[in-house]
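Our consortium's second objective concerns turning raw sequence data into structural hypotheses that experimental partners can test. To show how far this objective has progressed, the report includes one record in full. It was chosen at random from the queue rather than selected for favorable results. The single chain below, 346 residues long, was entered without modification.
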Amino acid sequence: MADGGLAHGTRVLLTLAAAVVVFAGVWFARDVLAPAAVAAVVVIIAHPVRFPLERRGWPSWLATTAVIVVAYLILAALAALLVVASAQFVAMLPDYADELQRTATEIAGWLESLGATDATASAAASALHPETLVPIAASIADAVLGFATAFFFVLAYVIFMAADASGFRRGGAAFGGGQGEGIAGRYFTGVRRYYVVNASFGAVVAVLDGLLLWALGVPAPVVWAILAFVTNFIPNIGFVIGVIPPAVLALVVGGWPLALVVVLAYSVINVVLQVLVQPKFVSDAVGLSLTLTFFSVVFWALVIGPIGAILCIPLTLLVRALLVEPDPGAGVLRRLSGVPPERERA
């Protein structure tokens, strides 16, 4: 306080209060900002397409068009996967209504034999009742329809962002030069590497999981393979989300032995690839601590909805790039967030 400034605790409280106001505003505007975030990530991934084309003499407008086409192909592939998976899931439920009902009754009886009350057993088993799952299937279909509506805004954002990215590049130092350009370059490179590596490993995991379920006779293996691919983009908890539906369906059609086989096989495949191998490829690019990664999944899903779980890494990296990395006095925060020591020294 000797220099007339605010005390450190006061500055921290003011910063936290401002953050609450900002993120509350993001929550209220999530229907607009979520599609913009999706478009921004897709453009970042597709943007390097322009460099070899411009080196070959392509005009800037034609290279920008190529970036837009690649971005649209990525979005079209994702939309096709979601539509196919949701349609098969909705169509599958009526065929297994009797099996679901029988399994729910068996689970209720088993829980009661363990000493659970009738209300507790009924509540636990009700999750498998067709009356519960059909509204869930309908809500999934509505969510896909809502995604299709937002998809129009994503397509428009992609055009504008791709054109702006070309203009920034022609304009020289778009981020202030020096440190700003370095931070921006690391951010864009990190986002691209993260999604390319996750898509590659997700495809491998999806194929292996799908073949496994097909060999075991679990219904709709394509749906669960697509789910495994999508949940691979959710750090830490994606595997748990991806294994629950096929394990439950295996329980319905094959009993506890088949369900346990599915869980164990999923665990082997996903733990080896996602826990032991994949982090070695993305740790240098992302540089986020495990605690912050897990927190970011929950936080961004709360702020902008389910898509926030998939976009949590680039959004967290963006906050760090804007608020933490440029501040020379935030070395402790950078290290706590997971910045590698070599980058900290740089």
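The partners drew two points from this record. The two ends are 32 Å apart (CA to CA). The mean pLDDT is 77. Both points have been shared with the crystallography group to help prioritize constructs.
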